[in-house]
Design a protein that fits this description.
The chain is of the alpha/beta class and 765 residues long. The chain folds into six domains: 74 residues; 101 residues, Nucleic acid-binding proteins (OB fold (Dihydrolipoamide Acetyltransferase, E2P), Beta Barrel); 213 residues, no CATH class; 80 residues, no CATH class; 49 residues; 224 residues, 4-Layer Sandwich (Metallo-beta-lactamase, Chain A). Helices cover 50% and strands 18% of the residues. The chain has 24 helices and 24 strands. The strands form four sheets. The chain has an eight-stranded mixed sheet. It has a seven-stranded mixed sheet with strand order 16-17-18-19-20-21-22, with no helix packed on it. Strands 1-3-4-6-5 form a five-stranded mixed β-barrel. Helix 9 packs across helix 10 and helix 15 crosses helix 16. The radius of gyration is 28 Å and the shape is globular.
């Protein structure tokens, strides 16, 4: 069988991906069906001659079996910890990072004081202030574990993080210094040293981008900066992957062969060692693991005087990573990295060859012969120039379906951005590697200044180009729900037809059909997006325990509540980056609790909020108070006025009723009445016109909730916490929607008066 590792690796990964897309309920059925078919294939004479069929069936069987037992052994046993306060003893196993006024630590537990749960797991916890501890010190404290499920938790597990939580304030925190450190500690120290060098050499507006470029660490980038790179279509340059390793190995190989006069196979072995070190420095993320394993296989093949097969190496990398961690396929970076590499391996040589042929002179006259000699002499350079265009094209083509399906957006100008920035990004990354080496060497650090200047210019160029293109009309367009299934069907149809359309003529026809389908999707989705631009939308964001509600129309946004868990701040910042420009029309802060205003400070820092309506001025802490008072217009009220206040934004009248025991917001959007009530609200104190709504948004069971009626109830919490209480209340007959761990709820209002309520990240519904 040709390329066995490619067949097995891709089949194994695809089976796992299907399990996550269509639900774990089918795992047992998949094991039984694939196992039965595999056994049958061993005895049927016709199938025995088709090794590919047996390899695929065995891969599916193995993938489902491994996933089933992995869930039982690791994932399900940690579910019991959710929404509990547990005392833990753990090691800090990575660098902490600061984000949204919280400090985040990655821990490896050695003891968890909770029955029937695994003791040795990784979790990420946040703290209001930094601990006086360094990596691999032992900490001892109480943690409140968050409730997380669905794609968000899958993505965490793909990175080795089983749970998230926050350190309980007021509890004692013990820190024990450790004398002995594991080898990985030194990789963490190298990363910290790189960050220190970048912070020292570059201004604040450049250093977050430089850190992300060289290590893939994006925690220092704001949500707005990430949105710019995403809409411009160059997120891949700030995610450690094969691009980084290609630059690293190319630079090291050239230096070793030039300075040490080593043979190519010896240089390959040395490069493999550096690749592994770089993988450790950036933290063994799924995308760098894929790229690293594949690169090491190719380098070792070169060392052994054998030409490695790139597809086999890619399949082997997928198999190793997904066998160790079946959840790796839930990491978007891993999927994009695999598909981009697959596209470059399969399609790039053909496209480059065709493009190079266009420059080859044809004919037999003397002028043509001279041009032919010129072409032959410079053929390698022409091929390199052609590859400069075809490589990003291949990567974009093959990652396009995943981008649309997973993120529901596409960047129409990504090819242009890549053509303008690819060379600059490669050169900048090389310069950063050299700069770090010079700084670490100390002796040659005086040579750093030209590299600092060059890196600064290149960094500003890339950021400027990304910002310019992200600011163009229709950049970073969202894909409508109705078109996502079209893309999925298109991918499978093209793959199947192309496989069996052997003649060139048929393949040309298929290519035209594919281009037409692509154009249909792009134009259709654009028209659909434009048609919805004038409609109003209410979004209830998945921010854990607490309520975040955004009312939007065109590019105007009103933040009616911005509360939730501290680890979910990126949810609201990313959403606002997608729906707003640089300002927010209106922001309501009914009180200073985490359930209502946990993200207020970050929003006020990131955006120009034109009008802020707030209550109880004396209860705001200094930083937040100064940000509120810095807005263009401030409406400051007192609780207990026993009257309804109103404000008009996005063509909607927003009414607020606020007393010491009552906190409610009501608004009527095109005939649909909304009511936002927090769990601390006493519903018996609500005005009569507040007590009936079409859509009610809550974060828990309020006092005297029987006074209120609603047809639809959106609950910003998990079903496990509230389902029994809701069913036993007056709202038991309402249609229930949950956000915590399940994704955002979007309610779209159309011109004819009807609305659609759907989960924004659940395109299968």
């Amino acid at each position: 069988m040709k390329r066995p590792l490619a067949v097995i690796g891709f089949s194994y990964s695809a089976a796992l991906l299907a399990a996550f897309l269509f639900g774990f309920v089918h795992i047992i059925a998949a094991v039984i069906i694939s196992g039965t078919l595999f056994v049958i294939s061993l005895f049927l004479p016709l199938v025995r001659k088709l090794p590919y069929v047996k390899a695929v069936l065995f891969s599916v069987l193995a993938a489902m079996t491994v996933l089933y037992f992995y869930n039982i052994a690791y994932v399900e046993r940690t579910d019991v910890l959710m929404e509990n306060e547990v005392h833990i003893r753990a090691e800090i196993c990575d660098l902490p990072y600061e984000q949204n006024n919280r400090v985040y630590y990655t821990l490896k537990t050695t003891q968890i004081d909770f029955p029937d749960c695994p003791q040795n797991i990784k979790l990420r916890v946040s703290s209001a202030k930094a601990l006086r501890a360094e990596p691999y010190d032992v900490v001892d404290f109480t943690v409140k574990i968050y409730s997380r499920s669905g794609s968000q938790r899958y993505s965490d597990i793909a990175r080795g993080i089983m749970l998230r939580g926050s350190i309980v304030q007021g509890e004692s925190i013990k820190i024990e210094k450790q004398d002995t450190k594991p080898l990985y500690y030194y990789a963490v120290c190298i990363r910290k040293r790189i960050f220190d060098i970048i912070d020292m050499d570059f201004p604040k507006e450049l250093s977050p981008f430089m850190k992300a470029l060289i290590t893939g660490e994006k925690s220092s980038l704001s949500g707005e900066e990430l949105a710019v790179f995403r809409n411009a279509g160059i997120m891949h340059i700030i995610a450690a992957s094969g691009f980084h390793l290609a630059v690293l190995t190319g630079m090291i190989s050239a230096v070793i062969m030039f300075l040490l006069k080593c043979r190519r196979n010896t240089a390959s072995l040395i490069c493999a060692v550096f690749v592994f070190i770089y993988m450790a420095v950036v933290g063994f993320t799924p995308s760098i693991m894929r790229a690293g394993i594949m690169t090491i296989i190719l380098l070792l093949g070169s060392f052994a005087f054998r030409k490695s097969d790139s597809l086999n190496s890619l399949g082997a990398a997928c198999l190793v990573i997904c066998f160790i961690d079946p959840y790796a396929v839930c990491d978007a970076g891993f999927l994009l990295s695999v598909l981009a590499t697959f596209g470059i391996i399969v399609l790039e040589p053909k496209l480059t060859g065709r493009l190079t042929e266009l420059f080859q002179p044809k004919g037999s006259d003397k002028t043509t012969l001279r041009r032919t000699r010129f072409f032959v002499r410079h053929k390698r350079g022409i091929e390199s120039a052609a590859a400069f265009v075809t490589v990003p094209v291949c990567a974009i083509i093959f990652t396009y379906p995943v981008t649309v399906i997973c993120f529901r957006y596409f960047a129409p100008y990504s090819l242009l951005t890549n053509l303008l920035t690819s060379f600059a990004a490669s050169l900048l990354l090389s310069m950063l590697f050299i700069l770090v080496i010079l700084q670490v060497s100390v002796i040659f650090s005086f040579l750093k200044f030209p590299f600092i200047i060059l890196c600064g210019l290149l960094g500003k160029y890339i950021i400027s180009v990304a910002g310019l293109i992200a600011g163009l009309p229709y950049s970073g367009m969202k894909a409508s729900y109705e078109y996502v299934p079209v893309v999925i069907a298109l991918v499978f149809a093209v793959t199947a037809v192309y496989r069996f359309a052997m003649k060139n003529r048929k393949r040309r026809t298929l290519s035209v059909m594919t281009a037409a389908a692509f154009l249909f999707f792009t134009v259709g989705s654009s028209i659909d997006t434009a048609a919805k631009a004038d409609s109003k939308k209410v979004s209830v964001l998945d921010t854990g325990s607490g309520i975040s509600v955004i009312l939007s129309k065109n590019n105007d946004s009103a933040v009616l509540s911005c509360g939730g868990s501290y680890d979910k701040i990126n949810e609201i910042i990313t959403y606002l980056s997608d729906t707003s420009e640089s300002e927010i029309r209106y922001m309501l802060l009914t009180d200073t609790s985490a359930e209502c205003s946990a993200y207020a400070e970050n929003i006020l820092k990131s955006y120009n909020v034109r009008t802020v309506q707030a209550y109880d001025e004396d209860k705001y802490y200094d930083r937040l108070h100064s940000l509120v008072m810095g807005s263009e217009e401030v409406i400051m009220s007192e609780s207990g006025t026993k009257k309804t206040e109103s404000f008009i934004c996005c063509g909607t009248e927003i009414e607020i009723y606020k007393t010491d025991k009552c906190n409610a917001v009501r608004f009527d959007t095109d005939g649909t009445v909304y009511l936002i009530c927090h769990r601390k609200t006493d519903c018996s104190q609500l005005p009569v016109d507040f007590r009936k709504a079409d859509v009610m948004i809550i974060d828990g069971i309020s006092e005297n909730m029987e006074c209120v009626s609603a047809s639809n109830v959106i609950i910003s919490d998990s079903p496990a916490e509230l389902e029994n209480d809701i069913e036993g209340s007056e709202l038991g007959s309402a249609e229930l929607y949950y956000t915590a761990g399940y994704g955002n709820i979007g309610i779209r209002h159309y011109g004819d008066g009807h609305i659609s309520i759907r989960r924004e990240n659940d395109w299968l519904n």
